């Protein structure tokens, strides 16, 4: 698990640590016990405390459990590293749930939702009382509904995002190297997988990715709202202004307008070409602040009242504090205000138990 976390092969670890592959294979299979000096060398190379290598193995997240976009393009080491991040997220959540009362999961699963992704998005908006209003903060919205949202380490920049259900809890793991706008779409996309491709259906395949994209587009940019904004035949300047309403990428809004029949094929192609020339294909110019976790911020604020620090949590889990920071948006958790849509529902309370 420690080697998978950093996504390196046994050959590379053997070379870096100066230990034979045969010995490493024996250690990993539990056939031989390495001397403490060897454990210290391995821990240093793998970026974990020595205690991690002595601790019980983390429960592995099965390869088919999460949804990975373009999984065929991921190197095997990247997929294993992402799965290990998911397993660590589960352990962090277990640690927190043993001490804090976190929001219960209230994410429905629509068994035939994939037959109508747009309908599934509309149904979820209705059930959550969101109407057609823009979503102020998608991460906070998901957390308020019991989704556990974590972040990927920067070294896994090629992994877009992924989601999965585990022991009745929904998880979303996001790539923080993307723009805020693309991160919001990723979060909505993964919500689509959770809702439409739950425990009964492995969320893999191009068709399921298209389903999740269609769900995310309707969830973030409801057709009725978009079409009521006077954006028919909208050009680049109108797109760049209007995208702020829904907090989406300019290219995403251009695609949405074309999908809804508000722009012609020629205008859509022309708009995308110009946006690409302006640099919007690779990112958003003067984009919004990146959404981060409010739940984790509140959790650690509650723990600090009990004199429990991040270092204490890391020590209990036999990992380094930086490993936890990688999973928790760097613990820079106050950048974006807001959360769910205005509602009479109280904010979820965290209580130390």
Describe this structure in words.
- The protein is mainly α and 353 residues long.
- The chain has two domains: 1-57, lambda repressor-like DNA-binding domains (434 Repressor (Amino-terminal Domain), Orthogonal Bundle); 59-220 and 291-353, no CATH class.
- 50% of the residues lie in helices and 5% in strands.
- It has 17 helices and three strands.
- The chain has a three-stranded mixed beta sheet with strand order 1-3-2, with helices on both faces.
- Helix 7 (117-127) packs across helix 10 (206-220), helix 9 packs across helix 10 and helix 13 runs antiparallel to helix 14.
- The protein starts with a helix and ends in a 26-residue tail after the last helix.
- The relative contact order is 0.13.
Topology:
Elements: H1 2-6, H2 10-17, H3 21-28, H4 36-46, H5 50-54, H6 76-97, H7 117-127, H8 138-144, E1 148-151, E2 161-166, E3 169-174, H9 180-196, H10 206-220, H11 223-227, H12 236-246, H13 250-259, H14 265-277, H15 294-305, H16 310-317, H17 321-327
Parallel strand pairs: 1-3
Antiparallel strand pairs: 2-3
Helix pairs in contact: 7-10, 9-10, 13-14
